[in-house]
């Protein structure tokens, strides 16, 4: 692995979590980098057009936005390749794969890839209204700032769906606060009995997104290896700059 490239990507990921931009010191802390290293990389990324600096904070620049543009088109999103990618990962990993985004204050499940021998979880209770009860919803809520998270829970109160579900708002918020940046969110039978799920955050520009997998409870030993495999697949595709999410 090329360390400088990895460090630059960590900074871009950090910038993507701040809709209003962030200063160098904060980005360095979130990316886990020494401040002098962060300054050097931020200057390089700004010079190349991937970032722009305004009023002391860094935002995505035109070059970063163009990474998700269609060939020959600048400044607009290209058609999504999510469905094709999910189908490939379903076959490689051997589990259903889900993709969701947080858009206009709501959870949007934009693609699911499953197969007869690896069926997806049945949506018996609204995914949108019960984000607190499933892994992909919790993963998206964890990426929101405090105000947006509280607003979401005001509109969609926490209520247990199974005997394993998080019981109340305070417990959910504490769980989300203790998640380390980028780590998988694990959910065991909180949404559907007999099923365990894991979700990972996905950085795609300013989009708040997540990918998830599910396995039957009797195959729980497959969950962590499978989600780590998914993380590797997603990271590889993002590095190739051919993956975009169109909302």
From TrEMBL:
Domain IclR-ED: 56-247
Record-linked SUPFAM superfamilies: GAF domain-like (SSF55781), Winged helix' DNA-binding domain (SSF46785)
Keyword field: DNA-binding, Transcription, Transcription regulation
InterPro entries cross-referenced by the UniProt entry: GAF-like_dom_sf, HTH_MetabolicPath_Reg, Tscrpt_reg_IclR_C, Tscrpt_reg_IclR_N, WH-like_DNA-bd_sf, WH_DNA-bd_sf
Domain (HTH iclR-type) ranges: 2-62
PANTHER family: HELIX-TURN-HELIX TRANSCRIPTIONAL REGULATOR, ICLR FAMILY, HTH-TYPE TRANSCRIPTIONAL REPRESSOR ALLR
Protein's recorded name: Helix-turn-helix domain-containing protein
High-level lineage: Bacteria, Bacillati, Actinomycetota, Actinomycetes, Kitasatosporales
């Amino acid at each position: 692995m090329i360390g400088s490239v990895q460090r630059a990507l960590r900074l871009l990921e950090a910038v993507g979590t701040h809709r209003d931009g962030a200063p160098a010191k904060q980005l360095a802390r979130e990316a886990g980098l020494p401040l002098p290293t962060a300054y050097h990389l931020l200057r390089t990324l700004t010079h190349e057009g991937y970032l722009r600096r305004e009023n002391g904070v860094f935002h995505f620049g035109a070059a970063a936005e163009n990474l998700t543009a269609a060939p020959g088109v600048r400044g607009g999103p290209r058609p999504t390749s999510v469905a094709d990618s999910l189908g490939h990962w379903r076959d490689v990993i051997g589990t259903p794969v889900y993709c969701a985004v947080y858009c206009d204050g709501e959870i949007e499940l934009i693609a699911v890839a499953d197969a007869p021998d690896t069926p997806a979880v049945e949506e018996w209770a609204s995914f949108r209204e019960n984000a607190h009860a499933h892994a992909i919803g919790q993963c998206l809520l964890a990426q929101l700032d405090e105000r947006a998270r509280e607003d979401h829970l005001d509109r969609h109160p926490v209520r247990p769906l199974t005997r394993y579900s998080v019981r109340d708002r305070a417990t959910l918020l504490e769980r989300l606060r203790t998640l380390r940046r980028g780590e998988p969110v694990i959910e065991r039978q909180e949404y559907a009995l007999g099923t365990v799920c894991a979700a990972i955050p996905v950085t795609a520009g300013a989009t708040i997104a997540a990918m998830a997998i599910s396995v039957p409870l009797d195959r729980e030993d497959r969950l962590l290896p499978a989600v780590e495999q998914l993380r590797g697949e997603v990271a590889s595709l993002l590095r190739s700059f051919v993956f975009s999410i169109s909302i």
